[in-house]
Queue: 3 jobs
Job 1
Amino acid sequence: LLECGGNLFDAISIAVKAALFNTRIPKVQVSEDEEGFKEIELSDDPYDCIRLNVDEVPCIVTLSKIGYRHVVDATLQEEACSLASLLISVTSKGALTSLKKVGKGSLDPESIFEMMETGKRVGKALHTALQKVLDEEESLGSSRQKVGFLG
């Protein structure tokens, strides 16, 4: 990412959504005894857990304005030609949750609307592809290959 270009915000948003998708929260029960003392009981079963719903977690798409056009996920050379970029946060249903302009240049309203529409379309496709990969990874279960120091 740092050597070959690419946008840090985009990569982090994908990583955060994937991490939240894999998060498991153990089930906890609170019981009360006869004297009114409360006791917290944590399930010993690692599969007895609650999963987080990540359907509405947005991903960020970066569009860079170059001349009268815009580029998604600009290369290093394209970034050098761009004076302004727009970070668009998009949910899986295509709803925009935030916009942020970065760079010294300006964006006219017409190009902002075009970039928003492109960001929606790309964002929905990104969510679809990410969810497909996450579902494939989930279907492997414990048979998936462990990589790295956590394996």
Note: The chain is about 35% helix and 30% strand.
Job 2
Amino acid sequence: QIRDLTFLIKNYCLTELYLNDNELTDISGALKHLCSLQILFLHNNELRKLGKTVKELKGMISLHTLNLFQNPLVHDPDYRLYVIYFLPSVQLLDRKLVTQRERESALHLYNPERSLLVQSIAFGKRVNAPLGIPVGSSRCTQPARRQTMPSGIYSSRRKNIVPFENPEDAVLVRAMTRSLSEFSAVDWNKVVTCQERQLHKKAELLEKLTVQFR
């Protein structure tokens, strides 16, 4: 039946705190000093204000396990994504692991500009596709398979655009808009020299390998 948390004001080194199954209605100003907290159970209380509750926990950079279920605030339609976005250190929320897809959805919902930037530029990623079709090589018997562009046109000028469901599609679009380069290689040991040309020596057919890539 705990309702007041002022008794915790001097417990700076707590790493685990179990306050579930009580009558807490507000935790504002009571827990923000617990920067070492790693596990916090607040389920089955009377917490109603999602924003104020999450704001109190923002300074807990070590918090990885959090329970808030069976509180009125969980009825907010964006409750889970809200907690995931504003408390990025949390890995286990209400007994469920936080997935990478949930983090991406939370980012798009609460920071759409950054979400579009990440998906359009795709930092550190590359297209999983062949470099191209070798030209003039007898060793290549089958053409390389090329990826097809995803449906729809991606444009940074469009507003309120929904990012690609598959990040690899965004990477592909980015790659396909870049310039095309070409690399060629030959076996110089088979190239006819000046002396051989003067002696009309018949040279072997020159094999040239050309690869296109972006």
Note: The two ends are 65 Å apart (CA to CA).
Job 3
Amino acid sequence: ICAIAHVTAKTMPHKDAECRKGSGPNIHDPATRELSVIVPSYNEEKRLPLMMDEALDYLEKRQKQDPSFTYEVIVVNDGSKDQTAKVAKEYCKKYGSDKVRVISLEKNRGKGGAVRTGVFCSRGEKILMADADGATKFADIEKVEEGLKNLRPWPKGMAISCGSRAHLEKDSIAKRSYFRTLLMYGFHFLVWFLCVKEIRDTQCGFKLLTREAALQTFSNLHIERW
């Protein structure tokens, strides 16, 4: 499997709404915000408002407590067929385009492509991936921030802190059928056996990266989709 993946791997296309040098904010430029929040969104017009309300309420309160704290939220509309872009742009009007930006991809490219586009257009010293479904409480960013802090010193400025819902696994199993539970364990085993052994919940969409780590990680992605 690894050999086939290596042979067939292709560089992700730099097109669509991909940010280039000189065309606007770019990951290669020095950071001008403390935090960038990347929200990949595909047909999320119903769930996005709940997540955005929670996130922006937290971020605004944090900024009032500490005026030096700066942030931006980048919603990447991944070729949605519903009103996701319209919903997201309402937050631009409410909070200003300096705090909330919407990037729309003409065609659906998958979560990998959407997150990568947002990262490459970000201005943050730290970059957070956050799912539009609000599956993780946004205030839990403080936990991943603490995790990132505990990794110091960062080699070459690179560090990644991963959120985890592994401690909620028993509750989720109780709500699943035996077949889905079997599939879950099978998938977790394959991920553990073939890829990552140190991280229990690789699928949690709540990850915090330093700017340099984001640049290195997303510059080397080969797969755009989930």
Note: Residues 165-203 form one domain.
